[in-house]
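Long-time lurker, first post. I've been practising inverse folding by hand and with some scripts of my own, and I keep getting stuck on stretches where the structure tokens seem ambiguous. Below is the full token string for one chain I'm working on. Before anyone asks, I'm not after the true native sequence, just a reasonable design that respects the backbone. If someone could post their per-position residues I'd love to compare against what I wrote down in my notebook.
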């Protein structure tokens, strides 16, 4: 588990890095939100309820990529995805507004991805260590499962495959990340994300 000093170092880096990113990319992000608004005929920026540090729910920001709302299955997401939205999701540019979440203190640059209710908030015993830190924009599990949607689409029972294979693996990866955290590793994960996405 991260010490108090390590958490301070991590938080200072998050704030400085996110401020710089938003300073440089603020106008492009607004432009992408505007295009998404035109492309989907809905608000270009939207939020999803996710589980954060200590199991506290928060609103995670994204650029809209789908027409309509409340699409739950992977196939429904594909059916309602716009061409522009598909490009945003493939390049991960739809995640850029989450730097605002980092500044707010909801998220970190690197950490376990925040999940929807029913997963992270249901972690038991030693697995709940994942909820002791802020969820991240990227991280080792995110990098490993960068093509998660494509993998799930190939399964006959995608929900079962996620719940029995992918989710438990993510939990183990995230526990390992927290147990062996270092600032150097966080930098490596950020660089790996830039290269792989």
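-- Answer (accepted) --
I ran through it position by position. Result:
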């Amino acid at each position: 588990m991260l010490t108090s000093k390590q958490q301070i170092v991590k938080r200072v880096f998050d704030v400085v890095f996110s401020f710089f990113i938003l300073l440089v990319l603020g106008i492009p992000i607004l432009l992408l939100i505007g295009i998404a608004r035109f492309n989907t005929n809905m608000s270009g920026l939207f939020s999803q309820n996710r589980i954060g540090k200590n199991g506290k729910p928060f609103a995670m920001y994204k650029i809209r990529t789908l027409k309509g709302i409340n699409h739950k299955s992977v196939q429904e997401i594909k059916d309602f995805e716009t061409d522009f939205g598909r490009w945003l999701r493939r390049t991960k540019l739809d995640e850029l507004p989450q730097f605002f979440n980092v500044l707010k203190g909801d998220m970190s640059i690197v950490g376990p991805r925040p999940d929807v209710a029913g997963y992270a908030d249901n972690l038991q015993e030693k697995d709940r260590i994942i909820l002791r830190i802020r969820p991240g924009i990227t991280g080792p599990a995110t990098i490993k499962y960068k093509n998660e949607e494509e993998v799930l689409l190939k399964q006959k029972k995608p929900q079962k495959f996620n719940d029995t294979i992918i989710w438990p693996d993510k939990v183990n990866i995230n526990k390992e990340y927290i147990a062996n955290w270092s600032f150097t590793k966080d930098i490596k994960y950020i660089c790996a994300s830039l290269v792989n996405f």
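A couple of notes from the structure itself: The mean pLDDT is 90. The CA atoms of residues 74 and 149 lie 7 Å apart. Happy to go over any region you disagree with.
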